[in-house]
């Protein structure tokens, strides 16, 4: 199982980014998928998830609700995170992996760095 995240950058507050995740190694279509954020000294926190099995049901952490949108492309095993109206507290390394009710795989990707600063 492999996850490859991309799309992170340094942006000013109020800016936007779109993160991409390519998942491979198993059939992910049945799994819920999520984006996790990690800051130095802290654990990875789930910020957004999307159900599997063809569903488009999504869940968001309160801190990103209304600003972030998660989506997935089933045929390509891709997961995306559209991040709008970015805030400095959104800064961190973003990872994708399976999401609750599924346990994340131990094989995390390298993540992609998002830095929000003026």
Architecture blueprint of SSEs:
Elements: E1 2-6, E2 10-11, E3 17-24, E4 33-38, E5 45-50, E6 58-60, E7 68-73, E8 78-83, E9 92-98, E10 112-116
Parallel strand pairs: 2-10
Antiparallel strand pairs: 1-3, 3-8, 4-5, 4-9, 5-6, 7-8, 9-10
Brief write-up:
The chain is mainly beta. The chain has strands at 2-6, 10-11, 17-24, 33-38, 45-50, 58-60, 68-73, 78-83, 92-98, 112-116.
How would you describe this structure in keywords?
118 residues, globular, 46% strand, 10 strands, 6-stranded mixed β-sheet, 4-stranded antiparallel β-sheet
How is the biggest beta sheet arranged?
6 strands, mixed
- Euclidean distance between termini CA atoms: 37 Å
Task: Tell me the radius of gyration.
Answer: 13 Å
Estimate the mean pLDDT confidence.
Answer: 96
Number of helices: 0
Q: Can you describe what's shown?
A:
With 118 residues, this protein is mainly β. It has strands at residues 2-6, 10-11, 17-24, 33-38, 45-50, 58-60, 68-73, 78-83, 92-98, 112-116. Strands 2-10-9-4-5-6 form a six-stranded mixed sheet, with no helix packed on it. The protein has a four-stranded antiparallel sheet with strand order 1-3-8-7, with no helix packed on it. The protein is globular and about 40 Å long.
């Amino acid at each position: 199982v492999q996850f490859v995240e991309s799309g992170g950058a340094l942006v000013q507050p109020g800016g936007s980014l779109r993160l991409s995740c390519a998942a491979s190694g198993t059939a992910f279509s049945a799994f819920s998928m999520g984006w996790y954020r990690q800051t130095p000294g802290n654990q990875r926190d789930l910020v957004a998830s999307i159900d599997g099995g063809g569903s488009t049901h999504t869940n968001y952490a309160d801190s990103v609700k209304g600003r972030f949108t998660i989506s997935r492309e089933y045929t390509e095993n891709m997961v995306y995170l559209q991040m709008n109206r970015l805030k400095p507290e959104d800064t961190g390394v973003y990872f994708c992996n399976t999401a609750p009710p599924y346990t994340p795989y131990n094989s995390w990707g390298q993540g992609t760095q998002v830095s929000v600063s003026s």
